[in-house]
Amino acid sequence: MAFNQKEYYKKIKNNPEYKLRRKGYNKKYYQKHKEQIKKRVKKYSQKNKRKVKECKKKYYEKHKNTPKYKLETKEYYQEHKEKIRKCNQERRGERKIYIKKWRRKNIEHIKIYNNKNKKRQNENNKKWLKTEKGKINSKKYNIKRRALKKKAKDTLTKKELKIIQDRDKKCIYCGTNKNLSFEHIISLKKGGENSFLNGVMACISCNSSKGDKDVFEWCKSKSYKVPKIVIKNLKLMEMTG
After folding, report:
1. What digits encode the pLDDT tens for the residues 93-105?
2. Which residues are 181's β-sheet partners?
3. What is the DSSP string of 126-166?
4. Which of 125, 137, 153, 216 lies 20 to 30 Å (CA to CA) from residue 234?
5. What's the CATH number where 144 sits?
6. Is 233 helix (H, G, I), strand (E, B) or coil?
7. pTM check: above 0.70
8. In this structure, is residue 86 part of a structural domain?
9. Is 35 part of any domain?
10. How many domains in the chain?
């Protein structure tokens, strides 16, 4: 009887010992021929982009709810955290550039769309501004606009603004919880920066009464103690220059 390789493989393929041996062999082969395999995969993926996308989608739909797939994705993410973050940042940057170019080319199309959907856009904007992200973004925009008017340096990020809001849940001067606003320790008119160290939360009345005055002089006039966070941040600003 002639040896039939297909039938022999059908018998052995589900054997756990054979699977382990096969995995070990595949790993050794991959380590030896890493660069060659990567080049082949790149060439194939560039030539067959649609096929690769379809195969990935089919595989994801089949295995997305399986515990094995979830464990594999978690393990891969933990091993390649930094690489994934860098790739995501690069893609976001590329996406932003693409959107800017598209908007420049399609200005008339955008105007027509905005005129047709004014009501819906206003309703969506109102809903979004009520969310936490919307509130932070609107505050950041207003602070940035003020800084640009007064030609001040703007290094404050959305994350830093959120940290300041979580840290200073009361007015740092009078201690009230109501009507809190972003306050610059050194005012923008007097050369203060729109930065994390120069920012604190104060109520609107304290913020408006302080205005462009010096913090120490204003606190004396109001018989307030100069807050520790103000002294700390001023020292850090002097250190950093």
Report:
1. 899 899 999 999 9
2. 202
3. HHHHHSHHHHHHHHHHHHHHHHHHTT--B---HHHHHHHHH
4. 137
5. 3.30.40
6. helix
7. no
8. no
9. no
10. 1
